[in-house]
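Researcher: I'm comparing several assemblies side by side, and this is the next one on my list. It has 1435 residues spread over two chains. Same procedure as the others: predict the full complex and return the structure.
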Amino acid sequence: CNFLDVEPNVNGKVRTSEMSEPQDVLNGAYREMGRTSYYGRNTYVFGDVGTDNIVVRSSGGRFNDNYFNTKNSRTSESVDDSYDISNQMGQIYRVLNHVNTLIHTAGIEDDIKGQSLALRAFLNFDLVRFYGDVPLVTEPSTDLNEVVSSKPANNTAAEIYAQIEKDLTEAKALITNTSSIKFTLNAVYGLETRVFLTRALEDSNIDKNTYLQKVIDSYNMITGVSVMEAGDYVKYFNNKESAETLYEVIIAGAQSRGSDDLGALYIRSGYGAYTCSPDFYALFSDDDVRKGVFYLENGLFYINKYAEYDGVVGLSSPKVLRYSEAVLNAAEAQALLGNTADAITLTDMIRSKRYATGTAPVSTGLIDDVLAERRLELCFEGHRMFDLRRNNMDMDLINSDGTARSPKANIPARDQQFYFPIPQNELNVNSNLKQINGYE
Amino acid sequence: QEQNVTGTVTDAGAPLPGVTVIVKGTTQGTITDLDGNYSLNTSSDAVLQFSFIGYTSQEIAVGNQSTINIAMEQDSEQLEEVTVMGYAKQDQSSNVTSVEKVTDIVTPNVANSLQGKAAGVSMTAPSGQPGAKPTIRIRGVGSISSSQEPLYVIDGMIIDNTDIVGANQQSERDPMSLLNPEDIEDVKILTDAAATALYGARASNGVIVVTTKSGVEGKTQFNLNVSAGVAELYQGNYEPMRAKDFIEFQKYGDVDINGDPFTTDTDWINEAFRKGAVQNYQLTASGGTEKTKHYVSLGYYNQDGILKGSDFERYSARVNMDNQVNDRLSYSIKTDISYIVQNDASDGALFSSPLMTTYMYPAIIAPYAKSGDLKRSVDGNTYLNPFLTADESGYDNYYYSIGANFLSDLKYNYRRTKSFNAGLQGNVKYEIGKGFAIKSNNAVRIQNTRYDYYTAPISYDGFNGPNAANGSVSNTSAFSSLITSTNLLTYSNSFGDHTVDAIGGVELQKYDASNQYGYGAGVPLTVDNLGSASSGFSNDGYQTQYRFFSFLSQVQYNYLGKYYVSGSYRRDGSSRFGKENQYGNFWSAGGSWILSNEDFLSTSDLITNAKIRGSIGTTGNAGIGNYAAMGLYGYTFYNTSSAAVIEQVENPDLTWEQKLKANIGFDITFIDKVSLSVDFYNEQTSDLLMQVPTAGMTGFANVYQNVGEMRNRGIEFTINSTNIDKNGFLWTTNLNMSFNQNEVTKLYNGQRIEYSRQVIEEGKPLNAFFIQEWAGANPENGKPSWYLNREPTQDELDKNQVFKQHDGRYATSYYSKAEKVDVGDPYPDFSGGFTNNLSYKGFDFSFMFTFSVGNDIFNSGRRYMDQDQSAINGGNYYSQMKIAKDDRWTKKGDIASRPLIDQAGDDGWGNVNSSRYMEDGSYLQLRNITLGYTLPKQTIGNIGLSNLRVYTSFQNLFTVSNYTGYSPTTVDNTGVAFFDYPDGRTYTFGINCSF
């Protein structure tokens, strides 16, 4: 026994060489999903701030580049978060390193491996939908010299999609977990509806209709869950483990980052930085229960969807995959396939539980109608930017007083601003990495 | 024949107290007093023996002399014992400074008295809070991201700053704070390789060697030292706005203020600061036989901070015992304990702190209601702003964000640190013979610190807004143990003209610390314990540890007392280092030549001592995290289960930072009156730990690597002179100065690191200020402007975004368009101290100046207190410095340094980081004046005392400086001033008596 051997336990740290319990490392990956730079805040914000759902009240500079659609490689992710990896892309790869470590651990339990594969698919899908052609990493980092010298080059989106589909297929055979705070079989199918729908509409290398059909097939595999009742909608976002939820990222009260929490950006007693666009608010009919997520003051529509969680005002445990989204993904696929009757059935599954009896709009089964419902149901959950992009739609942007937003009042369909640049600090250290999406 | 003999025993002209005078062959004898005097009844045929440790004994036949004055000479053989520093005796080639008068400054921590005492040592006190940890830098800053603090060696035991466990930032201390200043015999500063290399991997920032007092042979001598005094604010150049200034400032906003003229004019300085009492009681006993000696001390120190709510109280005790068992075996035991209670007035950002209030509250509001009652911050459980109701002036409603009344809150809230420290050390020495000896030093040091923070529900902090904590309490405890064992074989012998001293040995060190934290809210008034909390519970804790295992050796050789060479080698293994690099080697080589012992100088009356010395060697900086080299998972939770997060990848090569030190110096003494020491040094730090950015795809944004380099080089002077020494009048002077130049020489890939307003860049001093250059008001429109510091573009010219300032240089009111430039650095060009000691008959008088020239300060607090917004126009009320009114632009064509009030630039306000807030931090401070009087022996002998001295001292009497804050001496070492707690002025009166 060497006198110099010490066991680290500062702040509960343990040595890597003595591999922690795989279950603990998996939990570590789930925990890391909730960092401010990822689902703790930024990822949801990126999907909505800058779209026609939101207007600025007083941003204090937070997410300005996103809001004004002036993203560039230096500013797009520079929103402060005092963690090691302050940008969303870095954080995704950080979680990826956890699941890659598990996937490469010999003799690991099936369920843990399955969840790790599902998480890897989820992470890679976030990479491909936000950025596109970024490096595909499937090996863990274990050696310092490798970490220092590592300069991975871009892969194509198609390569990343191939890995995602492979991981999802393998995951389905392994997962036994049924708790929605981690990946379940239902969550994998829910993720598949999202992945296939996006790929159907955005990847020209595959057959669109085949993929739209895959959306429906995956949707049909989801069992034992139901669209939440009207009365549950408003409080749903402040609770956990509802039957509606396929997968949620738990962020406990003790993990709160205070004013850097997601809700704190929106609510009146937080920054109240961004509020609901008046044009969008007008789309909610008076007997729509979803109107309950707004707080009205001085003609402004504060977003209260993430008002409180675990006793902490402004905190949220985001419901990253929920059943209603899968329903709407399927409805969108049916509408695009021309299966109007099926699209109507699916859209009505949502509408029947959001309006007072008999007041819901009549469903047409057409794509515009499905997307209109989707916008109301999933607002501020980080979807809007992707919904518009996927369906080749442009957006008109206004200020809170209804005037046209400057410098850009209209973002054309499939504009560069619907995609994210690779952060400059990554380009600085990695000569093999190429900027993408027109940000070169 | 019976005869009375009196006389004075001196060493190099200075009186030598404690010398044993014995009539040879008898037990009859006495000891010289503090002035070296003795008196003895004997006979003319007697022979007197004069002996004192470290000196050659002398025997004098009395004969018919009634006065026998003796000049004692240091015994080089015995001297070894006296100047032992840590492991070995002092190397002739080393640069070692002994600090004089360690207790002259009234402070609980000796570290605070080091300023100006030794060349190359810079001490700043970032807070005037009694007990606050001062910042000490030896020969400049030596690291970027590892420790910049020196290593301490206390009674031979290594201890560094990170070994001091604090329960929170406010209980941060340094190793010197563990000692009662009264118990300190000697403080030495070690700088160069010859002196520091023996301490190896932790010595690169210099070493401070502290030795505590030992018993003195003879009848037990008691010494009582009592002093008391008062500390008060020294305002320096700082001048706040009074009500009249404030209203005038607000009126520049061109807004008509309704209502009556102000009736309230609160002097917030007067409310926040006080005259704080200082009391110090020290009782020591020292004595023993030739074989067994003891030193015992009891101390009590109590100081009220000048800021209300802050104080420091310490109880301390020490027992040092030495026993010579026989000719070969001796041992000593040293124990010390102390208990400290410290209250802090927060120097944080909350207005319930008197500190923030004195800087930021306008004079037109008052802490008292018209009735004379103190306004409460929060009334009952309602959030009620006492300043909202305009009961005294018409202006209160402009200052809506003011809430707390610290005078009320201080009655309930506290931030209290209690700490218990204990040290136990046992040393054994056995002389084997033939010059060999074995020494074993073993010590354990325990610290237990507890920090309690309570905010009452009726205080502003305790209530605090809609998410009310409604009273909160947190308790933090920290415990640490440091166990050291040093085992040495020493050899010391002479062979004719050759003398050899050598040591070799092994050292083990083991450190463990742990911390527990608990917090609860919903704590009712006065029931300030965690058990009465009802909500918001949280807890935390950690454990940490390190180990060192070291081999050390040193050889010193001298020939004829003229030529000295030495070499040392230490091998340090540490649990902190990567497994591929767990052991490091540190060495030094030195030489010196005593010219004055050469024939051509030995007879010189002019040059009585001359020495040239030089050394080169390496030391390390192991001030990295205890587990920085390991691959780590961090344990936390997900939902309700354990979760392991990958923290860092294993770094097997991670190692200490290395410093190559080279030093050449000479010491010269002229006619025994004036001595001069000059040192030239170059210290090259390499393997600086830096964060190296990595591709995010790896899951890591950066990793620590040993990649940077830095250099400190400079010159140090020390002059000691005896200006007058006749007819009992003695005047001596010490002047020390150091010129240090710091430069970052290599960074990872040459990449500069820029943070807020400072930069780490190759070719510049560390933390150089790099910000926009302030150009004052635009004469045209009164907008704030900054020099462009580049050529304007045609587009900028076309759009009138730039203009020519009155001096012909391009400026802009777009802050974002102005280029950043170098505007200074935090380190002085030179600094030092100047001390004079005068004595005549029983009187003694001394004064000391400290100075620093060329250090720049960014006064970040002034960004708030000297800005351009008025509350009346909806801005803030923070502009509270009187100078904020001066030199304002008011009309077109004005050339002014400050813009029009309420006039922003084209892309923001003018109080952003720029050279507008850069200040010259140079100063000259009268650090200390002491006047004492020692009563004549005849007078006090009658009342049974052997010595009685009364004295008075004045500390920080004045500071000459251009700095606009209270004092540049309390600005942090990085040169950024932010609402400092000033160091006050202290007056004390004391009595010191021995019996």
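Model: For your comparison table: The CA atoms of residues 25 and 79 of chain A lie 28 Å apart.
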